[in-house]
Amino acid sequence: MSFSVKTKMPSSTWLLRLRHHVAALRSNCSGLAAVEFAMIIPLMAMMFLGTYEFSAGVAIDRKVTIMARTLSDLTSQNTEVDDAKFTNFFNASAAIMTPYPSAPVESTISELWINPSTLQARVQWSKGAYARSPTSVVEIPDALKIGDTYLIYSEVKYKYVPTVAWFINKVSGITLSDVSFTRPRQGICVMYKTTTCEKK
Fold it and tell me: Counting C-beta atoms within 10 Å of the first and last residue's C-beta, which end of the chain has fewer, N or C?
């Protein structure tokens, strides 16, 4: 027959062991990398996605500028245009948006005549997403205000909706836009549904 006698551990020994375990825990760095990675990954993801969205927005904005210039340039190379040519102009310019979607593009081409007495630019004809009414006035730079001359005026708007930008309204997005002015190259004006250069 055996008996076991439990002896009470002195408090000094218990404190010594506790200090030893605490010191060992403080010097243990086995999970430090995982903790640091968990803390920094959200910031890294935000920076990566933000850089991607910003660079995509800059690229699309540049393409919008090129589209506006292309539309006015293609139109100005004609003496007269019709609806079929306008369709080709819009399709050609929309191809510039590749690889980004061209669906949000809204383009308009207008011809302006500058009244020699008032130097106001008046719309002669307009075609596109937001066609301007004839005789309406368009503000143009002072350097282009040469009386009794014509300008081809193109307008392009693009609604850019970032994929992961939670701080931007997904419905309204960001509207990127640009305009371009070009002088007719093959004649005084570019005629549309007329045989003469009108002055409205």
Answer: N
